[in-house]
Amino acid sequence: MNDRSVTILFDGNGRVYEPGQVLAGEYRLESVDPGSVKSIEVSVLWYTEGKGDEDMAVHEFWQFSADDGDWIDPMRPARFSTTLPNSPLSYDGVILKVRWCVRVRVFYHRGKDLVGQQAFQLGGVPPVEVSTS
Amino acid sequence: MAPRLRYYGKKRGDRRTGSHTLGSAADALFYAIFLLIGCGGLAALIVFLVVPEWRVNNEFVECTCTVTDRQIAEKEGDDGKLYRAEIEIEYEVGGVTHVKRTYDSATAWDRPGSYAGDREAAQQILDQFVVGEERVCWYDPADSNKVVLVRGNRWWIWIIFIIPVSFIVIGGGGLIYRLLHWGKSAEYRAAMAQRGADRNGFSRNGRPDRTFPNIPAGADITNSPGTTLAYRLPISASPGWKLFGILLVCLFWNGIVSVFVVIAVSGHLEGKPEWFLDVFLIPFVAVGIGLIFLFLRQFLVTTGIGPTMVEISDHPLAPGGQYRLFVSQTGRLQVNSLVASLVCQEEATYRQGTDTRTETREVCREEVFRREAFDIQRGFPFEADIELTVPHGAMHSFKAEHNEIQWNLIVEGDIAGWPDYSRCFPVIIRPNDGRNEP
Q1: How close is the nearest chain A Cα to the Cα of B74, in Å?
Q2: What's the rounded Cα separation, in Å, for the pair B340 and B298?
C-alpha cells in the first residue's frame, strides 16, 4: 500500500514550453487497487514560492468521479492536453518564484488522498542573478 | 511514515505541513462557536428584552395606583456603586391589594441592566413622582405582581442586536463556506474561484482581460495622451499627496507627544520634575523631530522642485523592445545629476503571527539616462529624448494576491542645496510576442 504513486510524463519528455504551445502527456497510477479510487483531479497550475504567502491559480482542471459515472481504471494510463496561457511565465527571482506543474490528485473511498506532480517551465525568463557585492 | 493527523504545522507562507483535515475541522469549530454565541445572544435579547417590552406595551392591563414611597436603590458594581429609581405603589387587582416597588419593565423583572452608574438620572426619575399622588400603572394579567409605571419602546435595544447578528453572520458565513469546501482540494477551490471570476467578467485583479492572466492591464497608464509622445505616464504618488500624508502623520504623532511634553515641562516649572517621564519621552520626541524634518524636506521638494513629466512612445512594453522616452523637469535648479532608470522589484506580502508584512526587493536596475552638472532656468524646462531598451529576458509584470513584480521608470535628481528627490512612474511589461526576439 505504501508504494502507491502517480507518474506523470509529458509527450517527448518536454520540460520547457512556450506560451500558446500545447502541453500534452499522460499519467498513470502505480500500485493502486481497481475500485479503490473515488475520484481523480488533474490540474495544470502555477503557484508561487518565496517570502510571500502562496498564490496559486489553476489554468486547466479536469475531474473524474466514480460517483458521477466516470470510468476510472487505475491500470491504464490517462491522457491530458491543454494549450498553455500567455502568462504568468515561470520565474526564479530573489524573494518570489513562479512554478508551473501538472498535479494529479487521487481520492480513495477510504484513506488519505494521493498526490503526484510534474513541474515544467513556461517561457524562457532566465533566473535573477543575485548580486553578492 | 507521517502521522495521519498532525496537530502542529510549520508555516511556509499559506502552506502548512499540518493536517489539512484537522485545520478545516478547527476552522469549522471556530465558526460554529461564533454562530452559537450569536444565536445564544440573539435568543437572550429576544427573551429578556424584546418580549417583556412587547408584553408591557400590548398585553399589560391599565389601572390606577397610589404612590406610597420612593427611593434610590443601590448595589455594588464592578466599577463602583450602581443606582436605580424605585417607586413604591399600591394598586388593586380583582379585589386584592398589591404593594410593589417598580418603575419600568427592567425594574419590574429586576434585570441587572436596570441599574446604572448615574445617580442623578435616577434622582430625576424619582423627582417625577410625589408620594400620595394617583398615577396610571400597567400590570401583567398573568401575574399581577408584575407592574410598571412607564411604557414605550427603547430604541437602543435594536442597536444591541448588531452584536449577536454580527456573530451570526461571521459564524454562519464561515461555517457555510467551510462546509461547502469540506473535502475539496486546493486545486478544485482555485478552479471554481477562477470559473466564478470568469463568469463575472472580472479576474482577481479586477480586469476582465484573460489574454495575459495575472498581468495588470495598465489602463490607467494609457488614458492620458502625451504632448510629445503617445502617452504621459502617471506618477505613482503625487508629491503633493505625499506631503499631505507626512503632514497628517507628523501632526498626529506630535499632537499626542506634545501633551506629555507639556505635562513634563509643567512638572519642572512647578518644581516637581518627573524624571522617569522625561527619559521615557526622549525617543518619542526624537521621532517627532524626525517627522518634522521629513515634512520640511518633502515641503522643499514639493514646492522648490517643479513637476517631472515622463512620456513614452508605446505601452505596454515588451522584453527586448525599444521605445522613445521623453523626460521633462521644471523649476529653477542647479542640477548635480539627473538619472532615469528602469527598475524591477519583487513585492511579497506575508503573515507573521497576526501581522501582515510586505517585503520588496529590487532585482533589476537599468540606467537609461544620466546627465550631470547643468542648470534649469524658470520657464525653460529641461527636456530629454531618450531611447529606452527593455532588457531581453526581463520578467513581465505580475500581480497576484500576495506576490507582485513591478516595473517602474524612476527619475532621481541630485540638486545643489536641495534634498535629493526620486519620482516613480509605473509601467507594465508583457511577455514577448516574438517581435523583439534577438
Answers
A1: 56
A2: 20
